[in-house]
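Researcher: Next sequence.
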Amino acid sequence: MESEREIMMMPCFDLGKALEEGSEEWKEMSKKVREACESHGCFLLVCDEMIPKGVREEFFSNMEALFDLPEERKMKHISPKPYSSYSGKSPVIPLSETFGIDDVPLSASAEAFTNLMWPQGNPPFWYLNSFFLSINYYLIYFNLYIN
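Model: Next structure:
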């Protein structure tokens, strides 16, 4: 039986160096990412060398600004796709709020989302966050690549 410490450990991957798509290293990392998603539902990504600390701090500051918006504004983000609309303030999970944003690698999608949340505009938000959301999209592709 696994110890409590083993059960609580989240898989951690360092993507500090670029992997060539299709290489053996790429396939091995894809396998590890898939296994982490299947067994834990998540993983920790370390990419300190890829993304400077100041950029990461600005990203989290932008996320805080997004979730600090009024509830009625956040509820304007609606999508017919499951899990792609704004979801929050659930009595079952009161501290959980999520946004699903489709086609994040396309800057027009990130810009449209930003303009919905900030009608007056917020270019630094959509530019920086489209970059981070594209990384997330890339990781999902990376995970599905060998399946």
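Model: Residues 137-147 have pLDDT under 50 and may be disordered. The two ends are 29 Å apart (CA to CA).
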